[in-house]
Amino acid sequence: MNSLVLKRMALAFALSAPYAFTQAQNKAETALQKFAENYPQEKIHLLFNKDHYVAGENLWFKSFVFEGYNRSNISTSLFVELYDSNKKLLDKKMIPLLKGEGSGSFTLPATLKEDVYFVRAYTTWMTNFSEDFNYLQPITVYNPSSTQKLVENAEKVWSATVHPESGTFVEGIETKFAVRLRSPGSTSTNWNGYVTDSDNPDLHIVKFTGFDKNVGLFNLKPQAGKNYQLTVQDDSGKKIQLDLPTVTSSGLNIQVESNEKSVKYTLRSKNMPAENHPYKILGTINNTLVYKAIISKLSDAQSASIPTDKLINGILRLTVFDNKENVIAERLCFVQPKTLHIKKPSIIPHLNSQEKSANALTIGKESKFESYTVTVLDADSNSPEEENSLLSTFWLSGDLNSPIYKPAQYFSENSNSQALDALLISEKWKRFEWYSIIAGNFPFIKNKPESYISYKGKVLAQGKPAVNSELNLIFKMPDSGLKFHQIKTDNSGFFVLDNLVFEDTMSFSYQLNTGDKSIANSTQVYFQPTFSFVPLKKDLPSISMKLADRIQGEELPAKVTKSISNITFEKFINEKITDIEEVKIKVDRKNKTKMLNDALSSPLFKSMSEMVFDFVNDNTMIGGNNILQWLQGRVPGLQIRSQGANTTATMRGGTVDIFLDEMRTDASQISMLSVSDVAMIKVMRGFFAGSFGGGGNGAIVIYTKRGGITGSVDNGQSKSLNEMKLKGYDKEETFNNTMYKDIQPTDRAKDTRSTLYWNPNLQKDDAGSAKVEFYNNDYSTQFKVIIIGFDQDDNLLYYNENLK
User: Fold this and answer.
1) What are phi and psi of 448, to 5 degrees?
2) CB 279 within 8 A of CB 322
3) pLDDT in tens, 153-182
4) Helix count (H) and strand count (E) of the chain?
5) Strands (E), 594-721
6) What is the pTM of this model?
7) Between 751 and which of 41, 476, 623, 777 could a Cys-Cys bridge form, CB atoms 3.0 to 4.6 Å apart?
8) For 541-557, what is each residue's pLDDT tens digit?
């Protein structure tokens, strides 16, 4: 046997072979290279802020999109949908992705009935492939006002399948068998099985006990002419009998052992046709060729090893082909299941378990890590990461389309590598089929990924397409004011706005660049997004919970009671924060008004008894067209009287002096001045220096909007321009990590939060470390800390442990 082991180059592997093969003998490699280069596969993991919700709460999520074992650069937008148990779409979000990462939230209506809901996530690129690889996660939502409640489905409804290693069962070759359990409800942890043959059904040839709720394993060396049966039973007495595959007189079996130093495989064969030589073994990880061996002649048993220092963690797919490139046998295994190549952060905790106490964690300096995803929960609360973790999505469930009960268990600290291996014996790699791509049948790409948000526009003028024309666009940007952009239409009047990144909506005006006013005034622009949500076609997965009638007055589960109490607590906190913010806004507005007054008023027009109305910084200063009428009712004692063309203003029975931009005028001259033209008004009581011998009844000083001083300079935008709005990314609700920063802790509101800290994008500080600051609730004594990060080379940092 001649073999070539691939050399690791980042996450790619290179292959060079000294063998000269015919074109026909290399069809598999050529097809694989085409598939890997043109049809990369994405997978998604969502981290949720908690494992259950109550109607009326917010659901937060952090998304990770991978292409193989790297964060994906294919997609820049993620579609996330919320379905009920009848597959009715309830809500949908589109969020931006930066190097595969993004975050968002759903607000669960208070009227949402108690049930299991489903969160689906996918990218535009993923819609070109099977829906089986979309992310689809059940979410439990409780609502005590519902007439029905969620309960565990205790009915033992399960099925079993049996899978020989590499898919073959050959006479005289001892073979591993994986037994796979599947259930829509509850499956017993305690189950076992035994093998018999039809000639002697009372004799148990082999016995075994299941590893977990997914899989068990046994070995059997078959004899010719025997018919074997497998009996599987659980501790409740349920029993299933299955026929093992028919024993064949010829065939090939590939047996694999994956340990820390190597992946060793052994080919055991019997009566294989000589005309099928030579045989070829290809090893792939993430649809990339990592190993190749040519076998010129088979013997009864021959072995080889692939050193693990040349590979990475992941599912290795070993496939044996004959000389016509037919698949003879195939086996999946995991590379180094006991040595996961993940980095652990250095953490300096400053923890206090007192009620509502301030806590902090410092993540030590990691030169290549720029940011982290961090969540802190009460240690007694369950996290969705305990069932399906980022690690299990990354290395297992994200690439397999069959349901796996709690796949996170296979990458936990005390994981059973033998159980993981048995699970992979029972699985098949479905990202592609060898026979299909060798035959040239590749996926049809109908949806190509866009760069962030794109819109296609069409311009019409006088009812006809404005072809090869220039269109002026004036965008109203919330942070940077106005932004001007000019585009040119094509031969059909179309244009494209692409690579847009904004939240909620973006307002803009447009005008056709032409001197013909009739054409300009008749211009119409229509937009259509190039992105779209794609309806879910497949059925929702089965779940382990069901609805039952609620008994009035029955006690709620403790976790539901805490979540309901937390809604009341958050409402109390939000009201307090709102009060504080309103005070801050008033103080800030007062400071800005003082700055405006200092900028507009000369020393002669300042007084200790002045009343200032700020039209620049206070958006409540609206209403009415006549400025004097606007003032009446807002200034105590001010009276406005009009008689014909004459208008007078009096205060305390005397005539009030009126100044426009500090120049004396009379009331009739400013009676037509619009509120929209005013920057500031001051009402002066009594004498002031600028009265210049005027009366002592005070004055009204009006300042108009002027460029440079008020910030309200005329932008030159024609009021006749047509305005439009475009829909952007959905805005994420803010998670309050510092509720006691400005509020004194109080016993008036019981703090029952299970999620104490949520930050999908924690940045490092100038010193290179990152600080997590949060407040305890009223009962937690230990904290579950989850930290996820990727460095510049996409190496993974993962931490999920309890601290106290």
Assistant:
1) -95, 145
2) yes
3) 877 788 999 999 999 999 999 999 999 999
4) 8, 51
5) 611-614, 638-643, 646-651, 654-655, 657-660, 663-665, 678-684, 699-704
6) 0.81
7) 777
8) 988 889 999 998 888 88
